[in-house]
């Protein structure tokens, strides 16, 4: 029998002010110590199929007692989904210029152990000791230009293909996942979110929201601030804290 989760969380998604369809999806499962945000891409409803498939598949994973086994299970599941989405695409689209895929960022928590797993530009933030840390690093052309060509953030952002992803589930034959493991401290708060949310917010706005003790209230603060802006993309976020 599993004991009650020490983690409290709240999740929300919104299509934003411009897009008719929401291609984001989330998993909010404190009793399993697992949370996910997926931001779909690809026309003809390919994006929302991909993001929902990721969330549904991860939700069905068995809850094992061993943290490392669970982490491995998440990785294997995402690799399997990458192959499946690639096959779906060849069957349904018959075109080489379309992609049915999705970013993914997942957080696994158990005891004092945490693991963040991601591909794409959906993010994981940590609020600790009155400071905000971005745990994930975007798999995007913008980030690649900054890393490899020493471009300034402003110049990289101005690039016409800045938002193009360099990794995503379903985007390439081989999926490269990034994993960051860390120790959890009392008072830690985490945020998983799609780019539609963080693009409209400053780091201060994110930190101020995560400093609030109740996840639902923190979430409302984040969405209120983001929806005051242009909110051109779908917005999704999950706030997790002890």
TrEMBL record:
PPM-type phosphatase domain: residues covered: 8-242
Alphabetical list of InterPro entries matching this protein: PP2C, PPM-type-like_dom_sf, PPM-type_phosphatase-like_dom
PANTHER family membership: PROTEIN PHOSPHATASE 1L (PTHR13832:SF827), PROTEIN PHOSPHATASE 2C (PTHR13832)
Source organism of the structure: Pseudomonas frederiksbergensis
A Pfam family: PP2C_2
UniProt-recorded Gene Ontology molecular function terms: protein serine/threonine phosphatase activity
CDD domains xref list: PP2Cc
Protein name per its UniProtKB record: Protein serine/threonine phosphatase
Gene3D superfamilies hit by this protein: PPM-type phosphatase domain
């Amino acid at each position: 029998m599993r004991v009650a989760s020490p983690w409290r969380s709240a999740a929300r998604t919104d299509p934003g002010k411009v897009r008719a369809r929401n291609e984001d999806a989330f998993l909010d499962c404190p009793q399993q110590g697992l949370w996910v945000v997926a931001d779909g891409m690809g026309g003809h409803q390919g994006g929302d199929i991909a993001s929902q498939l990721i969330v549904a598949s991860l939700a069905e994973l068995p809850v094992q007692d061993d943290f490392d086994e669970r982490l491995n299970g998440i990785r294997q599941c995402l690799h399997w989904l990458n192959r499946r989405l690639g096959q779906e695409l060849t069957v349904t689209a018959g075109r080489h210029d379309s992609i049915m895929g999705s970013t993914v960022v997942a957080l696994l928590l158990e005891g004092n152990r945490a693991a963040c797993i991601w591909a794409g530009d959906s993010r994981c933030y940590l609020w600790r000791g009155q400071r905000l840390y971005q745990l994930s690093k975007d798999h995007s052309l913008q980030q690649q230009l900054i890393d490899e060509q020493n471009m300034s953030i402003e110049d990289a952002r101005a690039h016409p293909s800045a938002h193009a992803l360099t990794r995503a589930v379903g985007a390439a034959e081989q999926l490269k996942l990034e994993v960051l493991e860390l120790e959890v401290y009392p008072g830690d708060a985490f945020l998983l979110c799609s780019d539609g949310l963080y693009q409209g917010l400053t780091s201060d706005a994110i930190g101020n929201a995560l400093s609030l003790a109740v996840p639902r209230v923190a979430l409302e603060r984040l969405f209120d601030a983001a929806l005051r802006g242009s909110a051109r993309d779908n917005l999704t976020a999950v706030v997790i804290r002890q």
